[in-house]
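Following up on my earlier thread - several people asked me to post the actual chain instead of describing it. Fair enough. Here it is, all 270 residues.
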Amino acid sequence: MERPAWAPRGIDISVPSVSRIYDFYLGGSHNFEVDREAARKAMEFMPGLPKIMQANRAFMRRAVRFAAAEGITQFLDIGSGIPTFGSVHEVAREVNPEARVMYVDHDPVAVAHSQAVLAGDEHADVLAADLRKPREILDSSQTQSLIDRNRPVALLLVAILHFVEDTDDPYAAVAELRDALAPGSLLVLTHASYEGIPLPPERAEGAVDVYKGIRNPLVMRSRDAIARFFEGYDMVEPGLVPMPRWRPETAPEDDDAYSFSGFAGVGRTA
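Reply from S.P.:
Thanks for posting it. Predicted structure:
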């Protein structure tokens, strides 16, 4: 397999990547046949996966615009993936051209491509780090030079927590990040769940097994379990809801049924 110029030398391009699979669902071009094969296999069980990812992306943009309109000028996007049109810095700067964005991902392709996209941008950067190690993110010289933790920050954990198993204690990681940020900070979160999927759970489980097979287990949590991530936050209306129902710009009833799979919400620290 020929290695394209955007693929870092250190990665094994014969192994599927969650970031590149997500890129494929969104119609991007930074993926390999091995990623497309895994995605197509998952779609055999859940054909609406691209619709879920599109709804996830649309929610992220609405939430970023909301945060920027509320006066948030700093964004910490953990599990940011491969940049596509309408990334956080582009959306935030439609409201505030001075908005600062720190992207964080542990996928080398996502980091390398972000570096190329952000080259020369003094108000945005990318850090190679893992959500499961919050201190490495918070103490990084890159984060500290870009993000002032004495002022409110919008923390984005979009479509990332369902890739963190309970044995890695994602609740502790989210709490540590919350406690490190200034009052008035926001948590922007989406999470996969069997609730809302227009399929029997045993059918949807086939797609979950595909992710397990590529050693990226997909943890489908209940709404109550997802709500626990917002401990210490006051929920912003309308609360924790299916993605199309969070401050929609068009009638949610017009969305594809798959778009209502999983939950999205925004919380604010006191």
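The chain has ten helices and seven strands. That should answer part of your original question.
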